[in-house]
Amino acid sequence: MTVAAPADNVAKSPEPKRYARPRGPFGGYVATRIVVLQDGYLREESFAIAALARLRAVVGREPGEDFTILEQTRVAEKYLGDRLGDDPTHTERAMHTALTLYAVHQQSIRDMPMHQDGIGLGRAVSLLCSDPDSAVAVRRRFAALGTATSYAAVTTHLRSLIRLLRDHRIALDYGVLAEDLATLQKPWGPAQVRGLWGRDFYRQPEPGDRRGDDSTDPKADSAPAGATSEE
């Protein structure tokens, strides 16, 4: 009696589709600055450890108030836009917020990068919700972020979510976040950004369907988004 060998063409369950946020030129610029700090921090280099400590100390403050972090938060001229005045530009405020929040996110984590390409805010929060013990509280905080009516309120709610992401070691693309924050400050921006965050959240697989989901190695689409200089 001959025993048939198992067939190689047995149908396998398809991997769940994951939506990855693309990143535009300004986001790439911010990400490049963060990667320099991140690589140094993971190698325990003193310059990066000191820089992230200074950045954490100015979370929630306006860009330019602390001269010791200007080297990290300075925005290249081509991303400043044409409407320069006494107040910070959209991109200056967005870069300052992104770098200071990243410094909070990476704090005390020396074996894993908390900035990783392609992981939008909605996706990161969706991964947080995979823990049933905290899912309700996380959704409540995410909803509060979606109803925030000022930039200061948005950054306050973001800081709360970032601390949860740090506790669960879930990474985020801070270049994408910086572009979102720049857009958020435009007259039409809040509705657009809320839509992006919401779709990013709901386009992720349900917790039970995350077979093989590796949030540390996202396969982001390479199509660039539009530049976020002020219009």
TrEMBL record:
Chain positions covered by the region annotation Disordered: 1-22, 199-231
Locations of Basic and acidic residues compositional bias? 200-220
InterPro entries for this protein? CRISPR-assoc_prot_Cse2, Cse2_sf
Protein name per its UniProtKB record = Type I-E CRISPR-associated protein Cse2/CasB
